[in-house]
Amino acid sequence: MKIAIIGAGNIGTAMAALICNSGAEVTVVARGARLQAIAEGGLALDDRGTRHDARPKATEALSEVQDAVFLCVKSQQLGAALDTNRAGIGPETLVIPMVNGLPFWFFLPDARPVPHTDPEGILARLLRPEQVLGAVLLMTVSMDETGVALSTNTPTLSLAPVAPGADGAKVDALIESLNAGGVVTDLSDDIRAKVLVKLMANVTTNPLSALVGCTLEEIGQRDDLCALAFAVADEFRAWAKADLGRDLPPNPWLRELLLDAGPFATSMLQDARAGRTLELDAIARAAMTLAEDQGQPMRCLAAIVHALDIATTLPLDGTACAAALSDLTSLTSLERTPS
């Protein structure tokens, strides 16, 4: 298969390094110094001490139609990435957005939009629903100063067409290639349930970690931070049940997940430390807006997002962090106090 990876950050690098093991023809789309580094020296993944070195094709934009394209960019960059690489995406190309938040395709084939995920309508205009595969990747990845991706767990990926009419044979061939490369991949019978479980974990931890500078393990260990994470999870769980009829895992499951993650900095904390734009629209604002429309406001999450919006530097320094946590804890206490 001809498989393209658009975006050579943490996830894109890791995916490309593994898929190259499958024998597929892999092309990586990158920019600037990252493109030059891959073109000259390839890329690499260190998977718990096992190193995967790969030499995929490297380009600034696709020029040949691909069998499958993985969009490994931030959700707010999806439209621009797709537009720039439209020459590589034909009507039968499988397109797999690898996003952390609530994806633009969540309600397809219904016409109900997901707020904040396709503000300019580029995704809806350039993609047929039948060619989009929903994806949920479970993989913790960071990158060292040399550009090597570092992973601490076996990557597991769930895929599924988001609308009837997908090319089943091509989907099966893609899954076969991914498994051959070392990405443990399955065809999910309920990809939206997996999206919601992962999103609950992300929405409870990513914004909070970016604000206060704590790893997943630290959030799970500290009662004050864990209480805030639980408050957001309660809000998210209530919306998912009321609006979507979905039951999600309870708070003890969430705390165990955080403790098991170890000292891992969330993707949003990594972005905050680097001064990059935070992925708040898909991870937080999309669900917040849907919940507000259904009369299920997420007040604690909204307060965290507001604190992120007004912060001059992230993560907050000690004094500002203490003040923010005091305000958020007061809000949580009010929300949990019976009237």
UniProtKB/TrEMBL annotation:
<dbReference type="InterPro" id="IPR051402">
    <property type="entry name" value="KPR-Related"/>
</dbReference>
<dbReference type="InterPro" id="IPR013332">
    <property type="entry name" value="KPR_N"/>
</dbReference>
<dbReference type="GO" id="GO:0015940">
    <property type="term" value="P:pantothenate biosynthetic process"/>
</dbReference>
<protein>
    <recommendedName>
        <fullName>2-dehydropantoate 2-reductase</fullName>
        <ecNumber>1.1.1.169</ecNumber>
    </recommendedName>
</protein>
<dbReference type="InterPro" id="IPR013328">
    <property type="entry name" value="6PGD_dom2"/>
</dbReference>
<dbReference type="InterPro" id="IPR036291">
    <property type="entry name" value="NAD(P)-bd_dom_sf"/>
</dbReference>
<dbReference type="InterPro" id="IPR008927">
    <property type="entry name" value="6-PGluconate_DH-like_C_sf"/>
</dbReference>
<comment type="pathway">
    <text>Cofactor biosynthesis; (R)-pantothenate biosynthesis; (R)-pantoate from 3-methyl-2-oxobutanoate: step 2/2.</text>
</comment>
<dbReference type="Pfam" id="PF02558">
    <property type="entry name" value="ApbA"/>
</dbReference>
<feature type="domain" description="Ketopantoate reductase N-terminal">
    <location>
        <begin position="3"/>
        <end position="102"/>
    </location>
</feature>
<dbReference type="InterPro" id="IPR013752">
    <property type="entry name" value="KPA_reductase"/>
</dbReference>
<dbReference type="GO" id="GO:0008677">
    <property type="term" value="F:2-dehydropantoate 2-reductase activity"/>
</dbReference>
<dbReference type="Pfam" id="PF08546">
    <property type="entry name" value="ApbA_C"/>
</dbReference>
<keyword id="KW-0566">Pantothenate biosynthesis</keyword>
<feature type="domain" description="Ketopantoate reductase C-terminal">
    <location>
        <begin position="190"/>
        <end position="308"/>
    </location>
</feature>
<dbReference type="GO" id="GO:0005737">
    <property type="term" value="C:cytoplasm"/>
</dbReference>
